[in-house]
Amino acid sequence: MSIDREHILKKDRVARPIFNITPFTLLDYPGHTACILWFAGCNMRCLYCYNPQIVTGKGKLYLEQALDFIYSRRTLLDGVVLSGGECTLHSDLIPLTKIIKTFGLKIKIDTNGALPSRINELLEEKLIDYVALDFKSLPKNFQHITGSNLFEQFETTLLLLMGSNVEFEVRTTVHSELIDREEVKRMVSYLEKIGYKGVYYIQQFRNDAETIGKMGSSSTLQDLRSLSTPNIEVVDR
After folding, report:
1. Cα–Cα distance for residue pair 191/52, rounded to 1 Å
2. Given a cut of 60, is residue 99 above it in pLDDT?
3. What's the helix, strand, coil split of the chain in %, to 5?
């Protein structure tokens, strides 16, 4: 299969934005079979991040290589997950998603929400079908946890998704040294106040992971489902 090169920016001939490809997953796109493209690079340095090699490393694959792979699997998959790192950092994301759509596949993106303008473009052009939005922290601890000052951008993205017709989820990874049960309660209150309605997923930190912040073991937060409200269901993954 020959990819129409006019859709790919010329810089793809020298840039390799894709760190790796997971050829098949039943877990990362709810209700669908999918592959995952892991984009290198991120604009945050979350202390608990267990993908330091992706966040700080360089890509290994050209977009054309990724597209050739996806095309070869198009009859076996329902969709493609664009993850990372932070996939929205890459300016080729728009042409990439347009091509994937021509394969008849759904697209899910995993994002920290720090580039609302790119999210808005994807929404306006109807290029994404599902979004997993990472709610890293409330403003007070955002800089400490993420190494960035991008909470307002996250909030803008959250509001964009709330005003769209695209299915999305809000999720938080918790390490007990950074976010305790009371902080989760405050995060639920924030979502309630901003008008979010739906499921709020809590992902407990994996203690076997090597992290950017060299974090130690995390204690499991208990009874998080009891923090649910009439509008927000807290689910402990």
Report:
1. 29
2. yes
3. 35, 20, 45
